[in-house]
Write a structure and sequence with these properties.
There is one protein chain. By secondary structure, the protein is an all-alpha fold. The chain has one domain. 73% of the residues lie in helices and 2% in strands. The protein has 10 helices and 2 strands, in the order H-H-E-E-H-H-H-H-H-H-H-H. Helix 3 packs parallel to helix 10, helix 4 runs antiparallel to helix 10 and helix 6 packs antiparallel against helix 7. It is globular and about 95 Å long.
Length: 277
């Protein structure tokens, strides 16, 4: 019977020791890296949105006071959340809003709508929720008696009504895509003369916005040209195909909201002292 061979305890080599020492550190760094990537993916958009909101509040506060500035930016935020909720409902990935002083805010779509109905739903989401936000602000006047809420409500109705002008890049231009794209021509006839008039008075904001609107009209000029091509552009016709129910639904929402906002502004004017708005 053979005696068992004694096992020899070999010492780990230098390379093995280095590997054993750094392996847990590398695993921890890899786990931390995945967390940092997630934090950056979520945190940077939130930081950009929050920073642009604070900057916009600061700019408006210098001209109109901090109470109006905070309330006005919150109303714009509610409006933009309406777009975001509608886009997510339709399955469209969109960015968080970026706020630009005297220009409003912008949400970027990372995928284009597949048809005019989807585009219209995303477009109407902002004015619908924004108008409800303005109604909520006006209701605060009856609880507090503070006229700042009437002023904020009036401008909340105004910005949502202005956005219903049927011309891209405004929301109305996207909404009427599901009603009749011919309404774009009415939007051009309304907005361009108004902006030219304001720009001629030396209003820098109107000048900047007029340049932006003209650029957007140029970028979307292919859509307007396609209106006159009719059946010669099948891709254009397919995009704007909507059922009668969809057209009537969007038409009632669009024109009904515009009328309600117009009367809402008149109602607030009657509550305010003459010349205060």
């Amino acid at each position: 019977m053979e005696s068992p061979t004694p096992t020899t305890n070999r010492r780990p080599t230098l390379a093995q020791r280095i590997k054993q020492f750094f392996a847990p550190i590398l695993v921890a760094l890899a786990a931390l890296g995945s967390k940092i990537g997630l934090l950056l993916k979520v945190g940077l958009p939130l930081l950009k949105m929050g920073g642009s909101m604070l900057f916009m509040i600061w700019v408006y506060a210098r001209f109109y006071g901090w109470q109006f500035a905070v309330g006005f930016v919150v109303l714009i935020f509610i409006h933009e959340m309406g777009h975001l909720i509608a886009a997510r409902f339709m399955g469209l990935p969109v960015s968080l809003p970026l706020f630009i002083p005297f220009m409003g805010a912008s949400i970027l779509m990372r995928a284009m709508p597949r048809n005019a109905w989807m585009e219209a739903v995303v477009g109407i989401g902002g004015p619908l929720l924004g108008s409800l936000g303005a109604v909520a602000v006006v209701s605060l006047y009856y609880y507090t008696g503070n006229q700042i809420f009437l002023v904020l409500g009036y401008f909340g109705f105004l910005i949502n009504l202005f956005n219903l002008i049927p011309i891209i890049p405004l929301d109305g231009g996207r909404i009427v895509s599901a009603i009749s794209p011919w309404l774009w021509l009415i939007g051009i006839a309304i907005l361009i003369p108004y902006l030219i008039y304001r720009a001629m008075s030396g209003n820098l904001i109107a000048i900047g916005f007029a340049v932006f609107v003209c650029f957007m009209i140029y970028r979307n000029s292919y859509r307007i040209v396609a209106l006159f091509k009719g059946q010669r552009d099948p891709a254009h016709d397919r995009y704007f195909e909507c059922t009668p129910v969809q057209r009537w639904t969007m038409g009632l929402l669009y024109f009904g909201l515009a009328i309600a906002l117009w009367f809402g502004m008149g109602f607030i004017k009657n509550l305010m002292p003459p010349g205060s708005l």
